[in-house]
């Protein structure tokens, strides 16, 4: 059944469509408008829960920057696209989940603070961000003994190292826990590292 | 023909290695049919439902190597429901009854149960090689049966199967007397294996040339294994997770240096970029390199590695190699014949990893390229035309532009001309996969020029029935046609029904074919099985008698001598 040149009123179709699924679990509300240049066929007598013409209409459109989000959402629903073997897809999914879930949580202790904190090193892009985050985290304990402090960490070999000497990636892969040293000890340490 | 004694005819047939040639000579006369069938040692069944297993064994009682394929190709992308079919058991049972001398079994996209593996293990005293590709339905228990009972096993090759993990003891089931293994590939297994048993096994199998480990194998274990297998030609590493300052890493480098025969590398699941240096010494000898499961390696590190690989013939990488990385491949790997570039970020916003530039660079540097699988974010007609000119030797050309229906970004035109150039220039093209915005015109070109085309994959392409008809009428060597989400309907389906008996199969999903059309096809062509595969949920809510106007979600048509299969699940209707 061929329609003429024109477009299908997607929203009207959607309203009358029979579909299975939990209420509210619907396709994304942002839908790109159907194209006006390609022919589409009408969905005659088709009790299908998935409106393929909608999908097709959405896909036919040349993707533009502004529609990136909606195209991406529609893309994610297209079964079996891109054509990658499930084995490969599953391997990547597993790897990604591992990376996301694991995080790189290390304890942070500060001299004089009654309790420790934990941070995820993977969240930070570099030393600057890390320092700021730590400062923020422990600012309630500052003030009494002045603001001289040094951030150190314990590495894989158990040695106490000054944060900042090695490249960031090397640091995150070898850091086991962080320790903020304050007061005289810190000043002494910093001085000798010059 | 009657001049030669049968032994002479048989001897002449020995020189015919291709199945097709042997099939043809068997049709010359009864005498040749008989000689051929008794002397056939290697049988290939491209569609397990095209013929009954018993019939195959009866015709070829001397079968030593049997190769069977099950589900249609689109099953790889979850388009075929889980219990559709493709069971290996009937084939193994028939072989056990009719060809007990069987030595090799190769199965692809089939459902293989532990029961069938156990039967296999016990039924063939001379069994030497088992190759399972993209199969499912078995566990490590089935593997244990193979290891235990197949004395003299030479090859156990498990490629990308879904295997249930029931423990690590299967490997330990290889008896101490087993020394015959030449090839062992268990890369797809998720579970752990007994490392000690593995090390002892590889040590006593002195002819072992191919070993592909799974991700659970540590670097420490790998180093120990390599020390015992210095003659390895193909290696799939384990996880490759190691600190570059660790002693294990040093031992690994040392072990690699001893492996002077290594030509093929794969694995590298979790490798840290720095640890790639350990294989620099092997790279100059490599002909095959598969880094497609190593997303942690970015472009720059890949490039450093590839600069050492000037003998490379086959390269599989992720698109994080980037266009610049591909340019390095082009300038370094002059012997390259096959390239596969997989997407690393499937649903991402698409920071353009590789584009048409990378492909053009490859084509201008690697003139021997004949096989391509390329996932990219965009492609232009100009680029494809250049590629077609640079590489006229393509036999397999599969291009996947990640955004369905995307036009040429420079001109906003469909990619008809680009693909047209490919089919015009590459006279030996046997396999083609299309993507991007395409009109009926591309199919006109394909029908006209792709004379040797055997397999065509179409997705989100075409404007009307004419497109499909061009292909069916034009490509005289077409064997497999698979189409999804394209506006081809009953008129196209029924235009040239005789064509389907010259092909292995036709798959159409999310197209405009109706139930009435399928019924008409089935009625006209009794030697085709026309399967209508309904979405599970749909078949639950569907009325008793769906109208003929109802569009068919998935249709699979194939020629067959076996009639309608009796193992179809309830959501499959065979018309």
Automatic annotation (TrEMBL), chain A:
InterPro entries: AUX/IAA_dom (IPR033389), AUX_IAA (IPR003311), PB1-like (IPR053793). Residues 103-185 form the PB1 domain. Keywords: Auxin signaling pathway, Nucleus, Repressor, Transcription, Transcription regulation. GO terms for biological process: auxin-activated signaling pathway; regulation of DNA-templated transcription. The keyword Transcription applies. The keyword Transcription regulation applies. GO terms for cellular component: nucleus. It comes from the Eukaryota. Residues 18-75 are annotated as: Disordered. It is found in: Nucleus. Residues 50-64 have a biased composition (Basic and acidic residues). Homodimers and heterodimers. Aux/IAA proteins are short-lived transcriptional factors that function as repressors of early auxin response genes at low auxin concentrations. This is Auxin-responsive protein.
UniProtKB/TrEMBL annotation, chain B:
SMART domains: FBOX (SM00256), LRR_CC (SM00367). InterPro entries: COI1_F-box, F-box-like_dom_sf, F-box_dom, Leu-rich_rpt_Cys-con_subtyp, LRR_dom_sf, Transp_inhibit. Pathway: Protein modification; protein ubiquitination. CDD domains: F-box_AtTIR1-like. One of its GO terms (cellular component) is SCF ubiquitin ligase complex. One of its GO terms (molecular function) is auxin binding. Residues 4-45 form the F-box domain. It comes from the Eukaryota. One of its GO terms (biological process) is pollen maturation. It is found in: Nucleus. PANTHER family: F-BOX/TPR REPEAT PROTEIN POF3 (PTHR16134), PROTEIN AUXIN SIGNALING F-BOX 3 (PTHR16134:SF45). Part of a SCF (SKP1-cullin-F-box) protein ligase complex. May interact with auxin and auxin-responsive proteins. This is F-box domain-containing protein.
């Amino acid at each position: 059944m061929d329609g003429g040149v024109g477009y299908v009123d997607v929203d009207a179709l959607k309203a009358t469509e029979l579909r299975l699924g939990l209420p509210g679990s619907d396709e994304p509300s942002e839908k790109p408008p159907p194209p006006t240049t390609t022919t589409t066929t009408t969905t005659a007598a088709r009790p299908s829960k998935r409106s393929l013409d909608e999908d097709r209409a959405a896909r036919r459109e040349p993707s533009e920057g502004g529609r990136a989000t909606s195209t991406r959402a529609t893309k994610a629903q297209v079964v079996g696209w891109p054509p990658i073997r499930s084995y490969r897809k599953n391997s990547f999914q597993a790897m990604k989940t591992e990376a996301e879930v694991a995080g790189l949580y290390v304890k942070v202790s500060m001299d004089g603070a009654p309790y420790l904190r934990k941070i995820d090193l993977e969240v930070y892009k570099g030393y600057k961000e890390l320092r700021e985050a730590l400062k923020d985290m422990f600012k309630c304990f500052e003030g009494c003994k002045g603001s001289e402090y040094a951030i150190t960490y314990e590495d894989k070999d158990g040695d106490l190292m000054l944060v900042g000497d090695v490249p960031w990636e090397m640091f995150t892969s070898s850091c086991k826990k962080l320790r903020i040293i304050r007061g005289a000890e810190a000043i002494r340490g910093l001085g000798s590292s010059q | 023909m009657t001049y030669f004694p049968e032994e002479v005819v048989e001897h002449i047939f020995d020189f015919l290695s291709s199945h097709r040639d042997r099939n043809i000579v068997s049709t010359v006369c009864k005498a040749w049919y008989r000689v051929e069938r008794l002397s056939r040692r290697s049988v290939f069944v491209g569609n397990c439902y095209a013929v009954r297993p018993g019939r195959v064994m009866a015709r070829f009682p001397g079968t030593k190597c049997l190769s069977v394929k099950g589900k249609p190709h689109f099953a790889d992308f979850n388009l075929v429901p889980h219990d559709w079919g493709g069971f290996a058991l009937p084939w193994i049972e028939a072989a056990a009854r009719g060809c007990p001398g069987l030595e090799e079994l190769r199965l692809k996209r089939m459902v293989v149960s532990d029961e069938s593996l156990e039967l296999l293990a016990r039924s063939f005293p001379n069994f030497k090689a088992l190759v399972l590709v993209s199969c499912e339905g078995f566990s490590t228990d089935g593997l244990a049966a193979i290891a235990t009972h197949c004395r003299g096993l030479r090859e156990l090759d498990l490629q990308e199967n879904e295997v249930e993990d029931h423990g690590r003891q299967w490997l330990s089931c290889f008896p101490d007397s087993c020394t015959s293994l030449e090839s062992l590939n268990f890369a797809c297994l998720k579970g752990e294996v007994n490392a000690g048993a593995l090390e002892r096994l590889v040590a006593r199998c002195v002819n072992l040339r191919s070993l592909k480990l799974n991700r659970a194998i540590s670097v420490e274990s790998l180093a120990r294994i390599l020390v015992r297998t210095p003659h390895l030609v193909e290696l799939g590493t384990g996880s490759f997770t190691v600190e570059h300052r660790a002693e294990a890493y040093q031992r690994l480098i040392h072990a690699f240096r001893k492996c002077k025969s290594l030509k093929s590398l794969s694995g590298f699941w979790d490798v840290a970029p720095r640890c790639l240096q350990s294989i620099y010494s092997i790279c100059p000898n490599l002909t095959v390199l598969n880094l497609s499961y190593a997303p942690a390696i970015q472009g720059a590190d890949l490039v450093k590695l590839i600069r050492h690989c000037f003998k490379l013939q086959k390269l599989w990488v992720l698109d994080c190699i980037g266009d610049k990385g591909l340019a390095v491949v082009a300038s370094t790997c002059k012997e390259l014949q096959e390239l596969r570039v997989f997407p690393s970020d499937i649903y991402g916003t698409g920071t353009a990893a590789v584009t048409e530039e990378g492909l053009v660079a490859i084509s201008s540097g690697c003139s021997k390229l004949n096989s391509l699988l390329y996932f990219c974010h965009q492609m232009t007609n100009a680029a494809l035309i250049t590629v077609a000119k640079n590489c006229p030797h393509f036999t397999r050309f599969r291009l996947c532009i990640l955004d369905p229906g995307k036009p040429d970004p420079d001109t906003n035109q469909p990619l008809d001309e680009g693909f047209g150039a490919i089919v015009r220039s590459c006279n030996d093209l046997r396999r083609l996969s299309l993507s991007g915005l395409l009109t009926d015109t591309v199919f006109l070109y394909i029908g006209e020029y792709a004379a040797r085309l055997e397999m065509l994959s179409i997705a989100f392409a075409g404007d009307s029935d004419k497109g499909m008809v061009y292909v069916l009428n034009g490509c005289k060597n077409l064997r497999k046609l698979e189409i999804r989400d394209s506006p081809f309907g009953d008129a196209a389906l029924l235009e040239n029904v005789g064509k389907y008996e010259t092909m292995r199969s036709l798959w159409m999903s999310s197209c405009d074919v109706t139930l009435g059309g399928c019924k008409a096809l089935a009625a006209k062509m009794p030697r085709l099985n026309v399967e209508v595969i309904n979405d599970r949920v749909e078949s639950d809510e569907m009325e008793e008698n769906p109208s003929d106007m109802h569009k068919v979600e998935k249709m699979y048509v194939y020629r067959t001598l076996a009639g309608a299969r009796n193992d179809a699940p309830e959501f499959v209707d065979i018309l």
